[in-house]
Amino acid sequence: xxxxxxxxxxxxxxxxxxxxxxxxxxxxxxxxxxxxxxxxxxxxxxxxxxxxxxxxxxxxxxxxxxxxxxxxxxxxxxxxxxxxxxxxxxxxxxxxxxxxxxxxxxxxxxxxxxxxxxxxxxxxxxxxxxxxxxxxxxxxxxxxxxxxxxxxxxxxxxxxxxxxxxxxxxxxxxxxxxxxxxxxxxxxxxxxxxxxxxxxxxxxxxxxxxxxx
Amino acid sequence: xxxxxxxxxxxxxxxxxxxxxxxxxxxxxxxxxxxxxxxxxxxxxxxxxxxxxxxxxxxxxxxxxxxxxxxxxxxxxxxxxxxxxxxxxxxxxxxxxxxxxxxxxxxxxxxxxxxxxxxxxxxxxxxxxxxxxxxxxxxxxxxxxxxxxxxxxxxxxxxxxxxxxxxxxxxxxxxxxxxxxxxxxxxxxxxxxxxxxxxxxxxxxxxxxxxxxxxxxxxxxxxxxxxxxxxxxxxxxxxxxxxxxxxxxxxxxxxxxxxxxxxxxxxxxx
Lengths: 213, 270
What we know:
The complex is a heterodimer. Chain A is built from seven helices and no strands. In chain A, α1 (9-33) packs parallel to α4, α2 (40-78) runs antiparallel to α4 and α2 (40-78) packs across α5 (136-146). By secondary structure, chain A is mainly alpha-helical. By secondary structure, chain B is α/β, with parallel strands linked by helices. Chain B has a domain at 1-79 and 164-170 and 197-270: Rossmann fold (3-Layer(aba) Sandwich). Chain B is 37% helix and 26% strand. In chain B, the strands form three sheets. Chain B has a six-stranded mixed β-sheet, with helices on both faces. In chain B, strands 2-1-4-5 form a four-stranded antiparallel β-sheet, covered by helices on one side. In chain B, a hairpin with a 2-residue loop joins β4 and β5. The interface between A and B is medium-sized, with 14 and 23 residues.
């Protein structure tokens, strides 16, 4: 949990901050065309909580941890440590997969909430003190009012599922690694690519479900 | 102790094992020779169900493990020591923890909640002393040499004093001096504890050592067995070719074989 959660903070925090800041900058121009500058808070909140926070955090964690899990288990596989584990009477799934699954599924929602919060604050710094689009009080109250339980549910269910996907994909490619160190490299790449595609596919499915609710 | 009956296993278009039958009794040693890819390691893994066979039956300690579940295999594997080719040590654990692992694992498997870690440590130190590596107890596997890792692997394989030990290429990639040290330890283990052993190797002289020598605990050295002694026949040789056993017999029968493929393993001495 420490490795996956705290270890991912150095990449999740700046990415969250920059995403919020970029949304605020882009929206300031688009909204001013329609004279709707005051809506910057709700747009930032909805975009971050529903989509960008969960998906960007998951993609970063996939790049860092799906690859890490696949390479670690892949190295264990090619150096016969997995066989040794089985020969010594230990179930590799229980010993290696379950803790990684629990850690990723627990930490990804936490990381997403942190990324959302940092992004929200960064967007505030752009929209209020820098561009003077809205007043400070209105930014916070309007963006908070814009969020409904449906958005919060999406924002938490997505990272939970993404966490499960990232860990299982990493373990799957790691445990079926063959072909020495070259195979470890291949498994690592496949894990990241596959986890990223699954993240987009699952977010599409969840959006489809929640849009109709 | 181990019984293979008409065992076959196919990987895609290749026979990894084809119609393999043999028996290994208590106290016996089988030395498995063969070219790379001839199925030696697969055979060793099939003994404890690490690979599942397609046809035939595999018996371990009298129990048919052919269709046994992974979970049911654990107690039988606990009675078997295995040395993997590169040692198979866990990188994240110190040498001492690696050697203690089978002991602690067995206590958990027996639902012994009072895991006696101090007794496990004592036994692990004793096993490391057996392979003359007690000083590496607190080191990580990456901090010791390849030969030392192999010796730690032997310590881990024998720490539970199993009646059967499987060795996968224990001397592969090692210099002759280290290789002989490893083989002497294997011989010592076999003769001190009277374990049955299955040894996969590329080196004919490893088998020669197992067949012609015994460990003398009083003199603490290897001594040559008499030419006509019955003990020499405790060691049998298996030669494999493309998944099949093409020779099974004693060292003298191996030396006398006229088969061109079999002769390669007798004459290719380093």
